[in-house]
Amino acid sequence: MTDKTKWVVKDPKRKKVFLPSPAMKKRAYFSSTSLYTTAAKNPKKFWGDMAKEAIDWKQKWNKVYEEKPPYFKWFLGGKLNVSYNCLDRHLEKRGNKVAMIWEAEPLGERERKYTYRGLYREVCKFSNVLRKLGVRKGDRVGIYLPMIPETMIVMLACARIGAIHSVVFSAFSGVNFKKRVDDCEAKVLITCDGYWRRNKAINLKSQADIAAKAKSVKKVVVVKRFEGKSPVKVVMKKGRDLWYHELMENASEDSKPVPVESNTPLFLLYTSGTTGKPKGVIHDTGGYLTQAYLTTKLDFDLHDDDVFWCTADVGWITGHTYACYGPLSLGATMVIYEGSPDMPDWGRLWAIADKFDVSVFYTAPTAIRMFKKMGKKWPKRYDLSTLRILGTVGEPIDKETWDWYFDYIGHKRCPVIDTWWQTETGGTLVNALPGIGPFIPTVAGRPFPGTRAAILDDKGQPVKKGETGYLVFKSPFPPGLLRGVWKNPKKYKDTYWGEYGNRTYFTADGAKWYDKHNIRITGRVDDVMKVAGHRLSSAEVEDAITSHPLVIESAVVPKPDEIRGQVPIAFVVLRPGIKESEALGIELVKLVRKVIGPTAKPHKVYFVEGLPKTRSGKIMRRFLRSMLVNEKLGDKTTLQNPQIVDYLKKVVGYKKK
Ligand code: WT7
Description:
Layout: E1 8-10, E2 17-19, H1 22-27, H2 34-41, H3 43-54, E3 63-68, E4 71-76, E5 79-80, H4 82-86, H5 91-94, E6 98-103, E7 112-115, H6 116-132, E8 140-143, H7 149-161, E9 164-167, H8 174-184, E10 188-192, E11 194-197, E12 200-203, H9 204-212, E13 219-223, E14 241-243, H10 244-249, E15 260-261, E16 265-271, E17 279-284, H11 286-299, E18 307-310, H12 317-330, E19 333-337, H13 348-355, E20 360-363, H14 365-374, H15 377-380, E21 389-393, H16 399-409, E22 416-419, E23 430-431, E24 446-447, E25 452-456, E26 469-474, E27 484-485, H17 489-497, E28 504-513, E29 519-524, E30 528-531, E31 534-537, H18 538-546, E32 551-561, E33 565-574, H19 582-595, E34 604-607, H20 621-628, H21 643-652
Parallel strand pairs: 6-19, 8-9, 8-10, 9-16, 10-13, 13-14, 18-19, 18-20, 20-21, 21-22, 33-34
Antiparallel strand pairs: 1-2, 3-4, 5-15, 6-7, 11-12, 16-17, 17-27, 23-24, 25-26, 26-28, 28-29, 30-31, 32-33
5'-O-[(S)-butoxy(hydroxy)phosphoryl]adenosine is lined by residues 271, 316-318, 393-396, 418-423, 444, 507, 509, 521, 523-524, 530, 535.
């Protein structure tokens, strides 16, 4: 169903402010701001009502919310099963409805479609496989899989038996996977032989083998992605490695979902913070699912006849919430794609959207900037008239990119929903809603109904209009918000509740009020980079570089990039007597790829004599950051070695002051 009604353009001179068309308002679940005011009056009641609608509870909760700062719980005593809510409950009405359409990267390979019943069967079977392998409620399962249907199947199978999954991005290295497996002590790993990426067969199993050496790992299940003769060499270790298809052959389809208390962990997802060690963010069951369900439904105004495509990889939170749990809990049809957007050419995503009549499309600004660069000729070749709503996520979107998306993908018909959130928040938290608006380029929008955002200055006071401060959330905390950091309560307290006390969730993002209700996000205020929308910490990349025997120390900072938003730049100090060389630079870049993965590779390596440091020896990355963009450098008096600044200016070709 397309909505061709003209857009209302309000106050075009000041800035474009779009409002929903009458048709959009009519179709939308909510079209008036009274949604926000009602929710604000009693957020606990709002979320309680929403949780009743969103979830089929096996047992109703006895208390809606409880806080023991900095911990909090939602729906206490309530029991549910996520896979039941994503599958079983849809069978009666939507058993034959397509739940998931998978598109392979090679054009010659046919798409695979799963109905709700089909998906249910696979999930039941695999949950029994897991049971047979000894996986029990609360056990951790490491998932290292690309965008193939089995990924969602195994996630849902874990949820079915109450096991906690931890998905690791398949483009991360095996070394990086192992770090996470070690931390969460996964009993079973699930991976595959390999997958197609830019026409190259990636051997994932060989990377998974690195992590399989972790002490906790008993079994490794290997999905066979390549049909027929495999383009990669897979070595199966006897007694440890098992083929998925062989295990599935004899598995029973009869599997009772295990109900768990609402505050039980559903999954862990490791994310980068300010130190080198990734944090295992804990998401609970009932709160997370309520937010996943409701944000999918309201942000994208998702109805039964929609086809939803979130392009995020399931290795990130966006993939968890919007390419798995959100759409499936709603009984929607979703699309997933294995490969790269430029295979065989830059029209591929539009070809897929056209082929499957996608109506809601959700992607990252980096991807749109790339499409914009490649030109409008690509989307023009395809029929995108089924699109109703466009979304973006992961990094700030600049005005030109917003406009291009709106004009050439949405054909000025589709609102662009700029969603701000984090791995930690589980679901979106700041964005406009399609039936309410306004949709303003560079302005994410309004805090989600029933949540309480504030923007504070250094002293904890609310900022005035136009001033930048820190984005925080106040009690009652969003139901999807993290419940802890795996095996590290101190990290949880310090990172999220250390800034303004344990009743204020600190996001580590800068923000300002655009008007009374709408928020503009200005970006991270800590040492976290967003590279092509991917989250990466400076310390993580530095640790990889300093693991090289010839390196003494290093500093990695982000530099703005036209397409990728930010790219990492490395400053490296070599051991005395070691000569810098291009070859060594390349070696370090390769090392980062090996230890972390290709997304983290530095775009430039500067070999330097020293780094700016405080008297206590802490590297002052902000000097390097400012130098790279010719920004004012600020006070040097706190430095132990202020003379290094002039030297570094020359090295990077700093132009100002
Ligand atoms: C960081 C979180 C949310 C899922 C994907 C990213 C930045 C995210 C936006 C946006 C400006 C954004 C923030 C945030 N960010 N969305 N719409 N506008 N910045 O999750 O990898 O945990 O990264 O991404 O800086 O803190 P993540």
